[in-house]
Amino acid sequence: MPNQLSTPTGEFEQVASPQYNGSNSTYSIDQIYKPQETRQNTITTSCLCRSILPVIFMICIVIGILGAIGTFSSQGKVLRTLNNPLSLNAETLPPNAPNVSCASRGTFLSNASCKVCPKRSKVFAVYWETPIDCLDFTKSSAATYVTHIYWSFAWMETNGSVSNILAGKLAMIKTCIAQARSQCIKSYISIGGVNMRWAFLSLTSSSKIADFASSAAQIVVGYGFDGIAINDVSGNLHSQGNWKKYAGPNVLAYLTSLKVELNQLPRSNDEPVYELTWDEFPTSLNDNCDTTFGDYQRCFDVRVASIVDRINLLMYNAPSSVDYDNYLDVILPTQWAKVVNVNKIVLGGCIGPVGSPGGCAYGAVPTSTQLLSYATQGAKNYGGVIIWTGSRDFIVNQGAVTIAMGSTGGYLN
């Protein structure tokens, strides 16, 4: 960033003032630059100064603009920018970023050398609200259990493309991602949320789907994410009464397009593949999943499971806490485990109270016993667990729920 202009001297400030008429000043502009020279030299210098100042000023402006938009890196390399004026160079970190010397994703610094991160057998993921700084969290004991941070949310434009401007400071988010990476914690961008339900339903043409997928992949590159989490919570009510029939084909198309875009992103041989996850309602395999007026209700298309890397079952926002026991004890083993690879199933719980920022949206709040059961069963019989939201738990509880679930489920190893 260019240095801020210093405060002008009293003499120059007076000369530059619009109220100065040129007759009462002790110094002329020539005397300010070279007061000891002869008049001939002074005039010559004055002319040169007057001539060159605008040139210097314009050069500074151009350099400042180029630096601000990220056209060139400090090494002189041209950086990739998005279609949005905001430049998101994945190689550039803010000045207060942690000292991460390992350029490759999936590696960490140990004894002055970069090593491949150990593979964690189970997922412990937390949703994290983008406006909230996660740096203190990544340095806390709660983070030792976490494998993935899902940054929520990226929103979609009316043309189907994904906005690359998140609700949070760019420098803060990239610093958090870098710190998490140095601790072998992956960061995903979660696209969607309840306000984007209709945006997903608008992805009805090949051009919109292509724009959606390519813009989403650019965000991954720009911020340095490790994957994408799709939070499409549209249902039957706004899909002509049958989400699977009318919205399902477009969902399969945009997920496939996303997967292709992610697979085409450049990466070194030692870097992990970019991953894609899907959020789903636990009731989507029930017999009544095709209820015409079901708002947050739909039937699951099993072909989704063959495209994505994991399916996050949102086992919260149910009418009664009894529903959560039913999800865990009945729905999961008798329905989901029969149609989806259990290692792809991640159990999701929310942290209350209802309506609080980053808390449960509606319905019953899962009890602490139920959340611990999610963690235990997720580690033992399924692919892991995910919390909505880790940001709330850390701010309100100093990460107590994350620690309890992580330790109970044995996610540290």
Structure characteristics:
transmembrane helix, eight-stranded parallel barrel, TIM Barrel, disordered N terminus, membrane, 2 domains, 413 residues, Glyco_hydro18_cat, single chain, transmembrane, GH18 domain-containing protein
Number of helices: 14
Average pLDDT works out at 82
Would you identify the regions where 5 or more consecutive residues have pLDDT less than 50? 1-99
> How many strand segments?
10
Number of domains: 2
Radius of gyration: 28 Å
CATH class descriptor name of the largest domain: Alpha Beta
Q: What general outline do the C-alpha atoms trace?
A: globular
Biggest sheet statistics = 8 strands, parallel, barrel
The neighbouring-strand order within the major sheet is 3-4-5-6-7-8-9-10
The name of the CATH topology of the largest domain is TIM Barrel
The CATH architecture of the largest domain is Alpha-Beta Barrel
Helix content: 25-40%
Q: Please provide the ordered H/E string of secondary-structure elements.
A: HHHEEEHEHEHHEHHEHEHEHEHH
Please explain how this structure is put together:
The strands form two sheets. Strands 3-4-5-6-7-8-9-10 form an eight-stranded parallel beta barrel, surrounded by five helices. Helix 4 links the parallel strand 3 and strand 4. The N terminus is likely disordered. The two termini are 43 Å apart. It contains 14 helices and ten strands. It has 413 residues and is an alpha/beta fold.
